[in-house]
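Subgroup meeting minutes
Present: P.N., E.W., G.H.
Scribe: E.W.

1. P.N. recapped why we're keeping a running log of single-chain structure predictions: easier to compare across weeks, and new members can see raw inputs and outputs side by side.
2. G.H. added today's entry (275 aa).
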Amino acid sequence: MDLGISTYTFPWAVGVPGYLPDTPKSWSDLMTFCTQNQVQRFQIGDNFPLHALSSSVLTEYIRQAEDRTIQLEVGTRRLEKVHLLNYLSIARQARSPFLRVVIDDTDYEPDEESVIEIIGEVLPHFRSENVMLSLENHDRFSSSSLLNIILETDPEWVGICLDTSNSLRAGEGVEQVLHTLLPFILNLHYKDIQIERVGHKMGFMVQGCEPGTGIISLDSLIQTLGKSDRCQSVTLEQWPPFVENLDHTIQQERDWALKGVHFLRHTLNFYSQHI
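Output recorded in log:
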């Protein structure tokens, strides 16, 4: 499995609505981070929308990645036919092995039957372009629902981008999601978190933490993923809490990213020799 980062490795530095930095992290900045830290893959999320770029800028960005031998992984949000076909074209141009998709969007939450229908309509295009469709477990759908979507479409061309923390909203921990969807996982989003009971004891607070210090066991994940040969990459993502001000938050985010990349590389190297 290759080591990767994402635009969601640096969510605050790339830009969060209402908290935009004076100088958001640029494509060049992200490419430089990959090169300096020997990161093999770079995944672009919906917080860096590629469809909003001109064709010339997109072509230049892809060239920069190719010059640095960085494998791009294209991602987006909104499982809708026209949007998917637009991003399929981008994924093909970027030589992305899959298109990572978050199903939902603002005011857009298709039901399971609609998702299956939409995927069925676009799959012939994905097959012809040799690009797989990778659905991210994101909040609403249970792992059993995602499994049904895969089995009702095409398990050879439809897979999973497994996020270690997103399924909490669906009432599922990462172990359950991993067990259910293991044969179909194409990419892992490693995102460490802490869960603490609030002061009045009525509820819990979930927030991101420095990679390797929370409840998500990377060792267990890598050992289990080693039983399947489909997972191509492990992507570091982060939920850094806001601290003091935006500058301090972005600095903490960068510190965690550096530590996280080192942690991921060390773990991947270890298990590559023992699995």
